[in-house]
Model the fold of this input.
Amino acid sequence: MYDPQVVRISLEPYFLHQEQLIGLLGTERAAFALERTSRSISLPVATPHALAAALAEALPALGIGELQKVLHERTLHVGQVVGIEQAFNFRRARERDRTGDKPVDFHARLNTDENVTISGTFNSSRLVVQSAAGNLSGRRPAYIIGTVTAWDGVNLELRPAFAGVRSLIEDEELAVYGIASKRRVYPDEVDQFAGADFHRPANQNDLHALLATSEEAVKNAFASIIGEPYVPKDWGGEKSDLYSSRLRIHGRQVSTAWLFKGPGFPRPMTVKALGKNGDQIVRLFSEPAELLVLQHCHAVTSAVINMMETYAHDPRNPRKYMILDGFDTAQILGSHGALNRPEQSVAINDRQRQPPA
Done:
């Protein structure tokens, strides 16, 4: 069941630097969390879990930005505390072991910009439990909160205070079974798109027909499909191309803001294609909508999807997003007879050439 209301953020710690985390939280907030936990459980592992829970609760107020978002908006600086969620390569650096220090190195190319490399080191002696080592070895996805210690425009170094798993919990009953909400909504969840067969192989004629369809025509077609009667004219200062509360997902009415990219960019969408410095994503997520929709007439690169995912995870205002690439768009428009297929045009022209009976 779709529900855009996020109940809470949950953090499962693998690595946690207690002193740094207490510094982030503030002594009063940290002391309250530890006192609350000590009254209910006395196991040693309770302390890092209590601090992680306090951090999760405080994230919206702490102003810890997503690294990809901060970089994208060009506000990153050394000394800033950021969070990043993506896959990293972890390696236990045994050759540098010292008493009390068992370093683990991590590095990755930023999933929204492969020209940026992230790296850092943490002390595996501070793992919450020893079994966490398996989750921080090899190539693994992780959510890391840390301080930027170096940044030269290409290479970025982080000093982590937390590494683990972040979940956005919408359904507490499902959370008991470890099922967290995903930020991405897929088109087959939309009631108005029920007639489209997203499992059918792509029809090249339909994809070519889509590339010959103007962005304005696509926007008007989607407005008609979702039942939105008010379609604004394009102008330079808009935050989105279409805003509507007519979309329904599993029977629930959802407010949406749409960004359309037509045949003016007939190739895979990149972040750079989304306005100057990719600021169209920034403007899209500034709309007061529950679901942000990005539509394109061609493929959408993983960097764009990762950027949408990053903005959707903003702890101060988490949202849902949907990507409609050329295939999705062709299937939806075709199922509603809104795609001007070449064979349709030929048939119409043939009828027009026939003499009247």
